[in-house]
TrEMBL record:
<feature type="binding site">
    <location>
        <begin position="33"/>
        <end position="37"/>
    </location>
    <ligand>
        <name>NAD(+)</name>
    </ligand>
</feature>
<keyword id="KW-0234">DNA repair</keyword>
<keyword id="KW-0460">Magnesium</keyword>
<dbReference type="Pfam" id="PF01653">
    <property type="entry name" value="DNA_ligase_aden"/>
</dbReference>
<dbReference type="InterPro" id="IPR004149">
    <property type="entry name" value="Znf_DNAligase_C4"/>
</dbReference>
<dbReference type="GO" id="GO:0006281">
    <property type="term" value="P:DNA repair"/>
</dbReference>
<keyword id="KW-0479">Metal-binding</keyword>
<feature type="binding site">
    <location>
        <position position="136"/>
    </location>
    <ligand>
        <name>NAD(+)</name>
    </ligand>
</feature>
<feature type="active site" description="N6-AMP-lysine intermediate">
    <location>
        <position position="115"/>
    </location>
</feature>
<keyword id="KW-0436">Ligase</keyword>
<dbReference type="Pfam" id="PF03119">
    <property type="entry name" value="DNA_ligase_ZBD"/>
</dbReference>
<feature type="binding site">
    <location>
        <position position="425"/>
    </location>
    <ligand>
        <name>Zn(2+)</name>
    </ligand>
</feature>
<feature type="binding site">
    <location>
        <position position="407"/>
    </location>
    <ligand>
        <name>Zn(2+)</name>
    </ligand>
</feature>
<dbReference type="InterPro" id="IPR001679">
    <property type="entry name" value="DNA_ligase"/>
</dbReference>
<dbReference type="GO" id="GO:0006260">
    <property type="term" value="P:DNA replication"/>
</dbReference>
<dbReference type="InterPro" id="IPR010994">
    <property type="entry name" value="RuvA_2-like"/>
</dbReference>
<dbReference type="InterPro" id="IPR003583">
    <property type="entry name" value="Hlx-hairpin-Hlx_DNA-bd_motif"/>
</dbReference>
Length: 668
């Protein structure tokens, strides 16, 4: 029996040692922290039940992962310990009881601090100047990384208001902001380097880089959380020490508070559980420390952590699991989104089995393959995401992911959206998109078919009364009677509306078919220059892009879509059903109000007309001419030397037109 337990302990220790090297030395873990902690807990439980079998070299007594030879080694004046972990109220209640019992005072105050998810660093200042920075290492001896520490953005290299102390040690947590971390991983993905699982691993790796210029590019930051040495010994409140550190120019975390009991802590935990996704940096818990430092020796230490402190750990947000399949969802706009389906795994209190992969570029960048073991993460989002692949666990025969060649809803070949990372199904009859397409087609500014509300459209699509845009014009009384709760009057009205929609001008038809990036105003601009479907189809992409107010991507989108079979077929059928595919050219009449409801800004200098003449002309046509560009502006008429209004209009995506656009509003 005991032989079996011994073997079990050996096996656990071997696993733990293996993962410590991956984590502490290589900064490239193969399992999540929660999974690692479970191994440690299992070992500790076995050790507690079998004290005779405990190995003297057990990781249960050790801090960190030892020291590598890359940097000079340096012994800590005071050991750098870890923190005891608490996962629930019972653990925390134990902590409060223990402190009160040791001190014999119920009114103890505790400093409650966010546990910053980074790596600890010891900084020694001699006569006010930073002398050395040392990592925790194995707690006793660490690695000297002073040059790297000097790249930490908010670390003072000299302490200004120095108070005659020749030696002072400050400890803190070095971390990387989430945004900076995302950029680091993006660069690594582009360079084909293994990704970091989280900001903490990348901070740890960065601190130990051999080239401090590279460390500087990692944008390291620090929150200091402790002072040691003669100066600190004169202050016997931890909170007060933090305050004075701040006055000396160190950055302390602004969210530290004082609490007195478990109830207050529980409120704090609840509060931060909600708020911490909004912080710029990762936190993994709340650290409690007895505020009165004169009790530290009384309460004492284990070989691994101080007993006057504990760390409540938030539920784990990362896990590792195996990717079984990549399925594809078709969004309402036709965009195909890959979804990771994996072995169900517990994560932050729920079981998850799916994660979004965002887009196909993401899969390629991270080289995610079916069968891979992956790190998944929940963070602040409801939907988990795949952080990275664990390459060391990849099957040798695995192959890179191939882009889908079929839309899962309709089977047609998806297209790459020009200039974007998305793949899109462009089939106008794709069932997954039909409802949205019809709603758009029938909307007020498009074909304006009243009576085609959301619910009705849903029913029609479900019952296959409409299967594409063309089939709207094939609806008849008999078909409509199949719907629930309809009457003669409603049917007659709807058919009337559909018939009436055939008279909508061509620009509206062009807008209504829902070509990506072709909005209402853009459709109008195109039709003014190319007044029929035939003319548009004959136009080269350069000619389309040549129009004032039209971007290259927009022109490319129109050009490409008009050539897709499903669009060509749709326009052909529209034509034979009597929809308007030719613009009726109405020269404007004196006093007509073609620009009614439009808000227009005029800027710059013009060749043919003065600014005043242009303004008057637009007003005659019913436009409201205003002086500043806002999101409500419909057009910016832009001459030469336009100034800041042009940039403003571009940033708000207001349509910009030139002097030639004015010509159409002049009387013949
Ligand atoms: N995934 C793996 O394979 C693997 C392997 C080994 C270790 N680990 C993980 O490493 C962790 C253990 O590392 P650890 O010993 O650094 O413990 P820890 O990170 O859980 O806690 C101790 C550390 O918290 C930091 N800290 C942050 N804010 C603080 C504050 N306000 N006051 C004081 N300290 C603060 C300090 O650096 C301190 O050293 C565990 O989470 C474990 O899961 C993971
Ligand atoms: Zn499709």
């Amino acid at each position: 029996m005991s032989e079996q337990i011994r073997r079990q302990m050996d096996r656990l220790i071997e696993q733990i040692e293996y993962h410590r090297v991956r984590y502490y030395n290589e900064h490239n873990p193969e399992i999540s922290d929660a999974e690692y902690d479970a191994l440690e807990r299992e070992l500790k439980a076995l050790e507690a039940a079998n004290p005779k079998l405990v190995r003297p070299d057990s990781p249960s007594f050790r801090v960190g992962g030892g020291v590598a030879k890359d940097h000079p080694q340096k012994e800590h004046a005071t050991p750098m310990l870890s923190l005891e972990n608490s996962y629930n109220s019972a653990d925390l209640a134990d902590y409060f009881e223990r402190c009160v019992a040791e001190v014999g005072d119920e009114t103890l105050r505790y400093s409650a601090e966010l546990k910053i998810d980074g790596v600890s660093l010891s900084l020694v200042y001699l006569n006010g100047s930073l002398d050395s920075a040392v990592t925790r290492g194995d707690g006793r001896v660490g690695e000297e990384v002073t040059l790297n520490a000097k790249t930490i953005r908010d670390l003072p290299l000299r302490v200004a208001a120095w108070k005659d102390i020749d030696r002072m040690e400050v400890r803190g947590e070095v971390y990387i902001d989430r945004d900076d971390f995302a950029q680091i991983n993006e660069k690594r993905a582009a360079a084909g380097l293994p990704l970091f699982a989280n900001p903490r691993n990348s901070a740890a790796g960065s601190m130990r880089l051999l080239d401090s210029r590279e460390a500087a590019a990692r944008h390291l930051r620090i929150f200091v959380f402790q002072a040691l040495g003669p100066w600190a010994q004169t202050i016997n409140s931890h909170i007060e020490a933090l305050k004075q550190l701040k006055e000396l120019g160190f950055t302390t975390n602004p969210h530290n508070t004082v609490i007195q009991n478990l109830a207050e802590l529980e409120r704090l935990i609840e509060d931060w559980s909600a708020k911490r996704p909004g912080l710029a940096y990762d936190t993994d818990g709340i650290v409690l420390k007895v505020d009165d430092t004169s009790f530290y020796e009384t309460i004492g230490y284990t070989s691994k952590f101080p007993k006057w402190a504990t760390a409540y750990k938030f539920p784990a947000e990362q896990a590792t699991t195996q990717l079984k399949e990549i399925t594809i969802q078709v969004g309402r706009t036709g965009v195909l989104t890959p979804v990771a389906n994996f072995e169900p795994v517990a994560l932050a209190g729920t079981t998850v089995s799916r994660a979004t992969l965002h887009n196909f570029d993401e899969i390629q960048k991270k080289d995610i393959r079916v069968g891979d073991w992956v790190f998944i993460e929940k963070g602040g989002d409801i939907i988990p995401k795949v952080v990275k692949v664990i390459e060391s666990k990849r099957d040798r025969n695995s192959t890179a992911y191939a882009l889908p060649d079929q839309c899962p809803s309709c089977g047609s070949e998806p297209q790459r959206v020009p200039g974007q990372v998305a793949l899109r199904c462009e089939n106008l009859a794709c069932p997954a998109q039909l409802e949205r397409r019809i709603m758009h087609f029938a909307s007020r500014n498009a074909m304006d078919i009243q009576g085609l509300g959301k619910e009705r459209v849903q029913q029609m699509v479900e019952q296959k009364l409409v299967t594409d845009l063309v089939s709207i014009y094939q609806l008849d009384e008999e078909k409509l009677w199949q719907l629930e709760r309809v009457g003669t009057k409603w049917i007659k009205n709807l058919l009337g509306e559909i018939e009436k929609s055939k008279t909508r001008p061509f620009a509206r038809v062009l807008f209504a078919v829902g070509i990506p990036m072709i909005g209402e105003k853009v459709a109008e601009l195109f039709v003014q220059r190319f007044p029929s479907y035939e003319a548009l189809l004959a136009a080269e992409v350069e000619e389309l892009a040549d129009l004032h107010g039209i971007g290259e991507k927009v022109a490319a989108s129109l050009h490409e879509h008009l050539r897709l079979p499903s669009y060509q077929e749709t326009f052909r059928q529209f034509g034979s059903m009597g929809l308007q595919l030719v613009a009726e050219h109405k020269p404007p009449q004196e006093g007509d109000d073609a620009l009614k409801g439009k808000t227009i800004v005029v800027t710059g200098t013009f060749n043919e007309l003065s600014r005043k003449e242009i303004t008057d002309l637009l007003k005659q046509r019913g436009a409201k001419v205003t002086s500043s560009v806002t999101s409500k502006t419909d057009f910016l008429v832009c001459g030469e030397k336009p100034g800041s209004k042009l940039a403003k209009a571009q940033s708000l995506e207001v349509t910009v037109v030139g002097e030639e656009w004015i010509a159409q509003w002049q009387n013949p």
